Design the sequence.
């Protein structure tokens, strides 16, 4: 299938690719790099029964936390589901209204990266001997027991970048980069919100982090 790139006028148009039951990767490490405008648009839309892949399970009363509060998320795959302001996830989990797949942070990043790189899985010592390894293949490698972890693929990735050019090449702002590049590669359809769109040639090629081949939809937000 040929790669296509579309520029949308609104965040609502940009997230139209998210359907009921989709697996959605959402970039961000806490607030840094979280695509709030795309999440708000998803909240206004009708998609439900979502599986969401994110570093945490929402914060306070904004962004991903509101998706969870409204019952739109059936499962979270994350590394840090509980913090002082994760009350919406806490309430849903205690009520049995949301599933959780807990993944150590390094494993989460590598499982996403593996999906984008076309790798079938990898062995890691992280998690061996704990509940997180139950039901998984283990081997003794390089002098230690290791657990086999599988890639995490997504139907759609929602990420935030600083700038895009007319070909969809992306640059990020400092630590707001976090999971964005690997999520863009791991999803079938990548939606990006940016602060600025520049002409082709307007980005220094040495600074491009995500090549446009991984990007399908771009929307400029204020």
Sequence:
């Amino acid at each position: 299938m040929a790669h296509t790139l579309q520029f949308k006028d609104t965040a609502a148009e940009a997230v139209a690719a998210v359907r009921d039951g989709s697996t959605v990767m959402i970039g961000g490490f806490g607030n840094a790099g979280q695509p709030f405008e795309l999440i708000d648009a998803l909240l206004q839309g009708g998609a439900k029964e979502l599986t969401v892949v994110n570093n945490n399970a929402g914060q306070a009363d904004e962004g991903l936390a509101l998706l969870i509060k409204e019952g739109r998320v059936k499962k979270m795959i994350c590394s840090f589901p509980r913090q002082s302001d994760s009350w919406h996830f806490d309430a849903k989990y205690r009520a049995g209204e949301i599933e959780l797949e807990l993944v150590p942070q390094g494993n989460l990043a590598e499982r996403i990266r593996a999906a984008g790189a076309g790798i079938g899985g990898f062995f890691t010592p992280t998690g061996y001997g704990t509940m997180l390894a139950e039901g998984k293949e283990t081997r003794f490698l390089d002098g230690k027991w290791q657990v086999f972890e599988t890639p995490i693929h997504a139907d759609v990735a929602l990420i935030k970048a600083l700038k895009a050019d007319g070909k969809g090449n992306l640059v990020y702002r400092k630590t707001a980069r976090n999971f964005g590049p690997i999520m863009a590669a791991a999803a079938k359809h990548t939606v990006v919100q940016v602060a600025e769109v520049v002409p082709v040639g307007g980005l220094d090629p040495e600074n491009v982090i995500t090549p446009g081949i991984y990007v399908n939809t771009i929307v400029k937000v204020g």
Observations:
- The CA atoms of residues 12 and 44 lie 8 Å apart.
